[in-house]
Amino acid sequence: MACLCKGGYKMEFPADFAARERALLGDRFEELYRYATPEPARGITVNALRCAPDWLAARADFSVAASPFCPSAFTTAPDWRPGRHPWHHAGVFYAQEPSASAPAALLDVQPGMLVADLCAAPGGKTSQLAAALQGQGILVANEFVAARAEILRQNLERMGVTNALVTNEDTARLAAAWPGRFDRVLVDAPCSGEGMFRKEAAASAQHNDALVTHCAALGAEILENAAALLAPGGVLVYSTCTFAPQEDEAQIASFLQRHPEFSLVDLSDCGFGRPGEANRAPEGFAAERCRRIWPADGGEGHFMAKLQKSPEVAFTAPGRNKPRRPAKVPSEWTEFSKTYFPQLAELPVATAGEWILLPPVGSDTLPLGKLRLVRGGVLAGSIVKKRFQPAHALFMAYGAQCANREELTRDDPRTAAWLRGEEIDAVTAQSGWCAVCVDGFPLGAGKVSGGRIKNHYPKGLRNLR
Q1: In this structure, what is the dihedral angle of CA atoms 109, 111, 113, 117, given to the nearest 10 degrees?
Q2: Among the record's GO biological process terms, what is one (predicted)?
């Protein structure tokens, strides 16, 4: 592929990094490490649970251009900030650096599959996997760091994902609990972040050989656990946002030496990026089957490899859990759901103290044991003083189907007021609980009384500036 940014912006890189890459690339260093602009590449990935990419492109009130890295992604202007846009609040898109959208798209997820994202926070790639599942099947979204697992939960809630189990676990514990269960596994491994030098100054400041070695070892450990989780015939995508051979081509070469039951899928026809580099791995490794995105290709930088487990692997399928007996459905939820969400009234529920959840269909066959579960399905709400108090998550997941809705548009002054946490006039909604929607997409819940809608949009999510 020809350089996309001749005459572009040349960065100053850490000395050890530049020395390594110049030794590997020779004269190609100047070509591959030249960015189009000083500003980081910016983009969005459309949430297919909300709308199609073509729909958004035709109606967006901000500049978008098709991304070369993923059919559901767009590049945006460097100075555009998406976080305050009503569609962001409604989960219509996820703000994501363009090349970061590539790995999840390579996994070829289909509705009904059992899918695991082992390093899922903050949730951009996870949201893509959820959109591909279209609410069918189960998505395990795992994050080892507890604070990041909470951010992951919030983002999946905003995107209206209904069939995710969000876990906060070491991947070894997941592999021990669920061996051979998953059709697809994504490992977007913690890495030395060499592709983040333009985006994050800290990535450049903290870079050293010891960090690369540490991240390579951690990535190898996670890959081992991913291999154990994957069912025979299943597909694993491994990715990093770094250029280090230890974490990229050499990592995959080493994995394949340990796991002859896996084969490397050729990514040469994926439509973007460039082949992996043969001199970054042991002799005989088919590096050209991997894929790299360099700064010259329009992204920050990514490495990807797609691996398939042989369907003929000798494997004893784990015994399936006996389905748990559904929890007794509280009458308060029954009354509420029949009034506002009749399509949910007959669904089984799970309870945790006063809380009521709508678990993903089939999730009771995954043994949780002592695994740390942050959220399993959709938090419907709680029983407070013998009344049902709905949760924000319920309306983000199902608000467009609510029987009582206040329909706003992004240009309606009430939309901005709502996102600031203010009460607004009711026009289409009747008294009682209602879903507040913008252009048909849910923004959360309100309660109508006397022609006014009391704002229940969470304070931490509001546009307060």
Answers
A1: 50
A2: RNA methylation
pTM check: above 0.90? yes
Annotated binding residue 189: no
- Per-domain residue ranges of the chain: 9-309, 320-403, 404-465
pLDDT band for position 140 (50/70/90)? very high
Q: What is the dihedral of CA 327, 332, 334, 338, to 10 degrees?
A: -160
Which residue of the set 191, 241, 434, 437 is catalytic? 241
Q: Which has the closest alpha carbon to 344: 405, 407, 395, 392?
A: 395
Identify the sign of the CA torsion 59, 64, 70, 71: positive
Report d(CA 114, CA 276) in Å as an integer.
29
Please give the single-letter amino acid code of residue 46: V
* 3 state SS of 230: strand
SS3 67: coil
Is 125 a known ligand-binding residue? yes
Any known ligand binding at 447? Answer: no
**Is 119 annotated as belonging to a binding site?**
yes
Please name which of 303, 267, 352, 268 lies closest in space to residue 195, comparing C-alpha atoms.
Answer: 303
Domain 404-465 in the same topology as domain 9-309: no
- Paired tokens of 234: 């299943």
Q: Count, in order, helices (H) and strands (E) of the chain.
A: 14, 25
Interval 329-373: pLDDT, tens: 899 999 999 999 999 999 999 998 889 999 999 998 899 999 999
Cβ(261)–Cβ(310) below 8 Å: yes
* Calpha distance 375→316 (Å, rounded): 29
Mean per-residue pLDDT, 144-157: 98
Written as one string, the DSSP assignment of 426-445 is -SS--SEEEEEEETTEEEEE
Residues 6 or more apart from 129 whose CB is under 8 A from it? 104, 107, 109, 115, 117, 139, 184, 186
241 is annotated as an active-site residue: yes
pLDDT surpasses 50 at 410? yes
Tens digit of pLDDT for each residue in 79-92?
Answer: 898 999 999 999 99
Reported CATH class of domain 9-309 = alpha beta
Per-residue pLDDT, 324: 65
Residue 2 confidence (pLDDT): 33
| CA–CA separation, 339 and 244 (whole Å) | 56
**CATH T-level assignment (fold) for domain 404-465:** 2.30.130
